[in-house]
Design goal:
Strand order of the largest sheet: 3-2-1-4-5-6-9
CATH topology of the largest domain: Rossmann fold
CATH architecture of the largest domain: 3-Layer(aba) Sandwich
Helix content: 25-40%
Strand content: 15-25%
Order of helices and strands: EHEEHEHEHEHEEHEEHEHHHH
Radius of gyration: 19 Å
Number of domains: 2
Distance between the termini: 46 Å
CATH superfamily of the largest domain: NAD(P)-binding Rossmann-like Domain
Oligomer: single chain
CATH class of the largest domain: Alpha Beta
Largest sheet: 7 strands, parallel
Number of strands: 11
Length: about 270
């Protein structure tokens, strides 16, 4: 069974490759824009291409049984049609919550007629990087919507679910909402970072417009979208769901565990 991982050097795709190998997969093909610099594990077939340029994909799709689809709205419909024509028999895509910005990815997958599994992660734990510069510089985190609560997920857990959905039968046609194991406010997450670092961090709520301007330095055009999402979570907290543990058979990563493994991100 040949498995194609698109976006194989991206933040999630690279982890999917590792998870597949750990689970015993022996025929993994990795799509990357530069195979020479990909630094993929031994035994992984690196193929040049990019889902943002569908014209580069024909060689990568040849002989593929199952595919992990990285989220790229602009070309998802065309890429999925190509996969269907090439004989791909399962697509595991990463999108987002039903009806949100990433719905177009799921729509494209379903329209091509290939059996699918939708992965719908919420906020990534990795987004705590937004606070790294401030925490390195001092003990005050200027953010916003400190009461906004979500259950952020580790990228490794998304990849672990993706790998099992690629290898195991019984997941076809499912949509898996993915979260971490606990719902935390933004203020609580900053407190946890401080506890792990042995510091007392102070969280300061910024007005919405000021918050958007601050986010624009990191997110550009997506700053307002992200800030609006935090405002919504302040009114409607996201609960944790047990999907990661149910699919993988192990507990999802807690935020404190994630921070302990990445203390270097928050220290000068």
């Amino acid at each position: 069974m040949k498995i194609l991982v698109t976006g194989a050097t991206g933040s999630v795709g690279r982890l999917v490759v590792d998870e597949l190998l750990a689970l015993g997969a022996t025929d993994v093909r990795a799509l990357t824009v530069d195979p020479g610099k990909a630094a993929l594990p031994a035994g992984v077939e690196a193929v040049r291409g990019f889902i943002g340029r569908p014209g580069t994909l024909a060689p990568a799709l040849e002989g593929v049984d199952r595919m992990y689809l990285a989220p790229l709205i602009e070309t998802s419909v065309e890429v999925c049609r190509m996969a269907a024509r090439a004989g791909v028999r399962r697509i595991v895509d990463m999108a987002g919550a039903k009806g949100d910005h990433w719905q177009a990815v799921e729509d494209g997958v379903e329209a091509c007629g290939v059996p699918y599994v939708h992965l719908e992660p919420g906020e990534f734990m990795h987004n705590a990087d937004l606070w790294a510069g401030q925490i390195k510089a001092g003990d005050v985190v200027r953010d916003s919507y400190g009461s906004a609560a979500s259950a952020p997920i580790a990228l490794e857990d998304i990849a672990a679910v993706a790998a099992r959905c690629l290898l195991e039968d019984g997941h076809e046609g499912r949509s898996y909402e993915l979260t971490g194991p606990e719902s935390l406010t933004r203020r609580q997450r900053v407190q946890i970072i401080g506890e792990v670092l042995g510091r007392n961090l102070t969280y300061v709520d910024l007005p919405h417009d000021e918050y958007v301007r601050q986010l624009e330095k990191h997110m550009g055009e997506y700053a307002a979208w992200y800030a609006d999402g935090m405002r919504a979570l302040a009114k409607h907290p996201q609960p944790a769901v047990p999907t990661v543990a149910q699919v993988t058979g192990r507990p999802a990563t807690t935020f404190a565990e994630w921070v302990r493994g990445r203390k270097h991100l928050f220290t000068a």
